[in-house]
């Protein structure tokens, strides 16, 4: 194992405690149920908008009405139970389901669409609260084809975003359209966009300068997106407070553990070394964090933002 990776794994426990405390201090509930059977608590902020720079804004939107807790057992993997229980003595880690909107160049790009209204998703309600009409979304970028990321693409079988151009990774589409993805609802969902569906390769140029990066492991075509100094991480992390202490811990949802570990290490290091803000679909709190590392450990700091005016 490289010295850098070892350093990342030795995150100070105090840093994690600070994050957990910050999450509690900013709690703001809005009732309802996300449809998830895991333990849940009041959600922090339903949405947060920040200015990345003078040309770009990022909006983090909670698709679940209550904050979720992922039990430790989901991270046991192959013989990791003792370490997991040591690193997460509470028995569970906070998680959530988020979607993100980038606003730049007079356009709006939505990254993932949550679980969908039929499954308890509240993305559409949150967009309404923000004053964002579905038809104002110009582009949709999908990180992978699991239902908690593609479920909101359709409403009663029709495209939920009537004007949006939909971009999906060719590698992800090919897997779920093939024998391995038999029965996938995502293929039908993306198909609802007709000629507005675009399947891209990793060398392709996407709108608004968004750069797609291969990040396989969670799924075969799982994709990270970079927009300016923002890294949309998708499902590289499922239980951030736990996994940031050991990037080699995987949730049971990862299809290929070896590749998932490689991708998580690669893009966490990239975010660290390039001073990028990371936005994760299952990060708790605001869903946005900075990864910072010094010679002794890795310090994780979450943004503190005010709710946008309504």
Automatic annotation (TrEMBL):
It holds the Pfam family Lactamase_B. One of its GO terms (molecular function) is hydrolase activity. SUPFAM superfamilies: Metallo-hydrolase/oxidoreductase. The keyword Glycoprotein does not apply. InterPro entries: MBL_superfamily_lactonases, Metallo-B-lactamas, RibonucZ/Hydroxyglut_hydro. PANTHER family: QUORUM-QUENCHING LACTONASE YTNP-RELATED, QUORUM-QUENCHING LACTONASE YTNP-RELATED-RELATED. This is MBL fold metallo-hydrolase. The lineage of its organism: Bacteria, Pseudomonadati, Bacteroidota, Bacteroidia, Bacteroidales.
């Amino acid at each position: 194992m490289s010295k850098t990776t070892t350093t990342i794994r030795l995150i100070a426990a105090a840093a994690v405690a600070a994050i957990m405390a910050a999450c509690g201090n900013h709690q703001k509930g809005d009732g309802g149920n996300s449809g998830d059977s895991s333990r849940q608590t009041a959600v922090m902020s339903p949405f947060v908008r920040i200015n990345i720079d003078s040309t770009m804004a990022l909006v983090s939107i909670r698709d679940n009405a209550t904050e979720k807790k992922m039990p430790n057992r989901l991270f046991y993997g192959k013989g990791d139970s003792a370490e997991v229980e040591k690193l997460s003595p509470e028995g569970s880690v906070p998680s959530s389901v988020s979607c993100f909107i980038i606003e730049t160049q007079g356009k709006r790009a939505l990254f993932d669409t949550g679980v969908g209204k039929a499954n308890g998703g509240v993305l559409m309600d949150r967009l309404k609260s923000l004053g964002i009409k579905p038809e104002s979304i110009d582009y949709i970028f999908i990180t992978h084809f699991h239902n908690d990321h593609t479920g909101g693409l359709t409403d009663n079988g029709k495209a939920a975003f009537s004007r949006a151009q939909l971009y999906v990774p060719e590698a992800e589409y090919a897997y779920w359209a093939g024998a391995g993805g038999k029965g996938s609802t995502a293929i039908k969902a993306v198909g609802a966009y007709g000629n507005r569906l675009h399947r891209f390769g990793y060398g392709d140029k996407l709108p608004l300068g968004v750069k797609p990066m291969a990040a396989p492991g969670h799924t075969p075509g799982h994709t990270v997106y970079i927009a300016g100094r923002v890294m949309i991480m998708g499902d590289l992390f499922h239980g951030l407070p736990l996994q940031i202490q050991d990037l080699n811990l995987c949730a049971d949802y990862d299809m290929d553990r070896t590749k998932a570990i490689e991708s998580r290490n690669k893009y966490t290091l990239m975010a660290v070394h390039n001073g990028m803000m990371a936005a994760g679909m299952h990060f708790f709190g605001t869903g946005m964090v900075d990864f910072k590392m010094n010679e002794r450990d890795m310090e994780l700091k979450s943004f503190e933002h005010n709710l946008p005016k309504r």
